[in-house]
Design goal:
Chains: A alpha+beta (157), B mainly alpha (97), C mainly alpha (112)
Largest sheet of chain B: none
Order of helices and strands of chain B: HHH
Number of strands of chain C: 0
Distance between the termini of chain B: 52 Å
Oligomer: heterotrimer
Number of domains of chain B: 1
Number of domains of chain C: 1
Strand content of chain C: under 5%
Distance between the termini of chain C: 57 Å
Number of helices of chain B: 3
Number of strands of chain B: 0
Strand content of chain B: under 5%
Helix content of chain B: 55-70%
Chain lengths: 157, 97, 112
């Protein structure tokens, strides 16, 4: 709980400093007051926990981001190629896919990663299945092969 | 190059508007309006650099937030009857409740 | 040094513009709502990303660079949420995707 509050404080302070750019005492004091107000409200709403501030992901997340950027670039090239090739070349598919994550945060990270790569959209998430619409049947097959699933599962421990 | 990029973003916004006017279903229109909003963010940032006043980026951040909230706000009413689409197709593959 | 920065920025802007225009063409060209959503995904992720990265090479000081990074993160975080909510609402209200391969655009247009 304490670690999550400190993490939220640092995030909000960075957000204020980067957006204002003024370093006078008055502006810094106003910023500090605003951050404290936000912290009080957030504690009354009881939303500061490991789900809103997932600090335990920080260890492995940067390697995952690098892999995700590579995947996004490849998917973009594929989709743009099929835009110019025309409607005959696409094969839209709708399929339920099993996911192997245990925690809610892991499931959401996986579903968001599916949606973030163009060509696949996660439509619904029920228990341990995710309903995916893909532009090409090949994309669904590479999701079932489970490279992204394995990486997200590695991320959550 | 900045001016060319601005013109390209203008062209993309015109394409989005065409889809928004033509779009057969309601969801196509919402999708086109959402894309128009994200392109407006890019247009504001580019115009700030073209005019030599990058302070426009603050407005771009605010516009991105407003665009997100407006789309979510419209879709919050999506379980009312006005949003239902082509009830004959509804039987073919129904989601379990 | 300035020449290299400007050239890299211009290259990134060019790639971003090409991706955005491709996404716009796909938005007009694809046969149904769900496939159009993939075209919008292109402009939301790498199209906007490359344009904003290209602008980062032009930025005169650090604060402006930070604001561009902030807009980029905001776009990347918000885009998937919006398209997921839109797809879920469309699916729940009975808009079915055209699944079979080939020319079924006529059927979709006539059903509306």
């Amino acid at each position: 709980m304490k670690r999550h509050t400190i993490s939220l404080f640092l995030t909000l302070a960075a957000f204020w400093l980067l957006n204002s750019g003024h370093n006078t005492v008055l502006m810094l004091a106003l910023g500090f007051a605003a951050i404290m107000l936000v912290l009080v409200i957030v504690h009354k709403m009881d939303v500061v926990d490991h789900e809103s501030q997932p600090i335990y992901l920080t260890r492995n997340i940067f390697g995952y981001y690098l892999w995700l950027i590579k995947a996004i670039i490849e998917a973009n090239i594929t989709v743009v190629k099929h835009v110019w090739l025309g409607n005959k070349s696409i094969s839209p598919t709708l399929k339920r896919i099993k996911i192997s994550q245990k925690t809610d945060v892991g499931k959401v990270v996986y579903a968001n990663s599916i949606t973030l790569t163009p060509g696949t959209v996660a439509i619904d998430l029920i228990d341990d299945e995710v309903l995916v619409h893909a532009l090409l049947r090949k994309d669904i097959e590479s999701l079932i092969a489970g490279e992204m699933d394995r990486r997200v599962t590695l991320l959550e421990r | 190059m900045l001016i060319a990029a601005t013109l390209a973003v203008f062209v993309v916004m015109i394409l989005a508007i065409i889809r928004g006017v033509v779009g057969p279903t309601l969801y196509d229109r919402i999708l086109a309006v959402n894309m128009f909003g994200t392109k407006t963010v890019l247009l504001i940032s580019l115009l700030g650099f073209v005019m030599g006043r990058p302070e426009f980026l603050d407005i771009a951040i605010v516009y991105a937030l407003i665009n997100f909230i407006s789309v979510i706000g419209v879709l919050r009413y999506s379980d009312t009857n006005k949003f239902s689409h082509a009830p004959t197709e509804n039987k073919s593959l129904k989601q379990e409740p | 040094m300035d020449v290299i920065l400007n050239f890299t920025g211009a290259l990134c802007l060019f790639i971003g513009c090409f991706l955005c225009i491709s996404g716009g063409v796909g938005l007009l060209r694809f046969p149904d709502f769900y496939t159009r959503m993939h075209a919008v995904g292109v402009t939301d992720t790498l199209g906007a990303g490359m344009i904003l990265i290209g602008l980062m090479f032009y930025s005169p000081d650090f604060l402006i660079f930070a604001k561009l990074v902030m807009i980029l993160l905001l776009t990347l975080l918000v885009g998937p949420t919006t398209s997921h909510v839109l797809a879920k609402a469309a699916m729940r209200n009975g808009l079915m995707p055209a699944l079979e391969k080939g020319d079924n655009s006529k059927e979709i247009n006539s059903s509306n």
